[in-house]
Design brief:
The protein is 33% helix and 24% strand. It is built from 14 helices and 25 strands. The radius of gyration is 23 Å and the shape is globular. The N and C termini lie far apart (59 Å).
């Protein structure tokens, strides 16, 4: 079995308290060391005492780490074995894991450019810049130590915190115990590429010690559901990353049939497990033909083990899959089921099960189901009318608006609770390094101050 040690400020640490990580069929794959509270406290103190590496050294090391992560052997594990392991444990298709591997490498290569995109145009990076002789804004960190409570639903979530390293933060990552392989590999690659051990640490913990990581950091980022967002909503030092609730709007003049590929891709790309996957489609007019067409396309997706090259849909242990199914059926009460009305679990006979897609039609753009996001291709199709306005479209990470109504587009772009607006047939899953995801992370990590010398 693989052994995933704590990666502390003085090197790897194998703790007495360990947890076995299983694949979706129930077979043990790895043992994960859990850092005790005292170790966490000492590790966080070491991060505070460390000195930040020069910017050119950081940027070069991040780029090297990305290459090593995506193509090399890290801690004795070739990239192909890493990808197979992540697929087997998370249930994500092997093709989606490969895509995420490449995305992380590209984010590493673009880390410096990405953070510079977020810098105010009137600011400079260093107080020594000649412009400060006559007074200039200088972009500075809000702290020195950044903590991340990472998610385990998708490897690509680990792209974001690379930007904190590029900006000079020392970093503590608490990996998800569901999928710790990606952050363990990435932190190891960063160290092998040149980062000192007291610059970036990996601290797997139980819930008892998890709070110590955030509590000892200057700033933190936490992934989770609506409960996590509410918990940290009034905490200025913590950036919560919650559900995406991404949506597609089809106005009356839109040709939804030509947009069907975009809609289906938005719902199912990467197995439908991401915050940028579409969870609701709102239709000006009759939503039934749209729902029927989406259901027909999604029903054709095969049920396969995650390591099959043709696999798309996520796979989970049967018991966990049944819990998802029970939750879906409870939420779908009163809706019209086009797909998945009798359940979404397709057992593979080895202790695991595929989560099949679900398509349900609701009768109002204000139906509560519009805000329900599940970890597989599940979409709610609703009618939308002009009198409803943009109210049903609020609280959305990505909104694809297939419309020619520029006044409506202007309203959507101006709405503070809509994170990103894609106009036309662009899937909600589209992302690009250097562009904000849920705003620029640097907006949270940095501030400007005037320097005159």
């Amino acid at each position: 079995m693989l052994r995933l040690d704590v990666l502390g400020p003085t090197g790897p640490y194998r703790s007495r308290k360990q947890e076995t990580v299983h694949d979706v069929t129930g077979n043990p794959v790895a043992t994960l060391s859990l850092a005790p509270r005292l170790f966490v406290t000492r590790a966080m103190k070491a991060l505070h005492l460390a000195r930040t590496a020069p910017v050119d050294d950081r940027i070069a090391a991040i780029a090297r780490a990305g290459e090593l992560f995506a193509a090399g052997t890290v801690a004795g594990l070739p990239v192909e074995e890493y990808q197979r392991t992540v697929s087997a444990v998370s249930g994500m298709s092997i093709s989606a894991v490969r895509t995420a591997t490449g995305d992380i490498a590209r984010a590493a290569a673009q880390a410096h450019r990405s953070v510079r995109q977020a810098r105010p145009v009137g600011a400079v990076d260093d107080w020594r810049d000649p412009f400060t002789r006559t007074g200039r804004a200088v972009w500075t960190r809000r702290g020195d130590v950044f903590a991340v409570h990472a998610a385990g639903n998708h490897p690509a979530v680990h792209q974001g915190w690379l930007e904190a390293l590029a900006l000079g933060y020392r970093l503590a990552v608490r990996p998800s115990r569901r999928e710790p392989f990606t952050p363990h590999r990435l932190v190891t690659a960063l160290r092998e590429a040149g980062f000192a051990e007291d610059q970036v640490v990996l601290l797997p913990t139980d819930h008892d010690a998890a709070g110590e990581i955030l509590g000892q950091a200057d700033l933190g980022m936490v992934y989770g559901g609506g409960d996590v967002v509410r918990k940290y909503a009034d905490h200025p030092g913590v950036l919560p990353q919650g559900p995406g609730r991404s949506k597609i709007l089809l106005t009356a003049e839109a040709d939804w049939e030509s947009a069907l590929d975009t809609i289906v891709d938005s719902v199912s790309a990467g197995g439908g497990v991401g915050c940028v996957n579409t969870t609701a489609v709102l239709v000006e007019g009759d939503p039934a033909p749209v729902a029927e067409a989406i259901a027909e396309r999604l029903a054709a997706l095969p049920s396969l083990p995650p390591q099959d090259e043709r696999a798309i849909l996520p796979v989970l242990p049967v018991e966990t899959a049944r819990q998802w199914e029970k939750h879906l059926l409870a939420k779908a009460t009163g809706t019209r089921a086009w797909l998945g009305g009798d359940g979404i679990v397709d057992e593979l006979g080895d202790g695991s099960a595929v989560l099949r897609p679900a398509v349900h039609q609701v009768d109002s753009p204000f139906a509560g189901q519009i805000g329900v996001e599940l970890g597989f291709p599940c979409v709610w199709v609703a009618p939308w009318h002009r009198d409803a306005g943009i109210g049903p479209l609020r609280e959305t990470l990505v909104l694809t608006a297939i419309t020619t109504d520029e006044r409506l587009i202007e309203e959507l772009v101006a709405e503070p609770t809509i994170g990103n607006v894609y106009v036309g047939e662009h899937p909600t899953s589209w992302m690009e390094p250097g562009l904000p995801h849920d705003g620029y992370l640097a907006e949270f990590l940095m501030r400007t101050k005037t320097v005159l010398r």
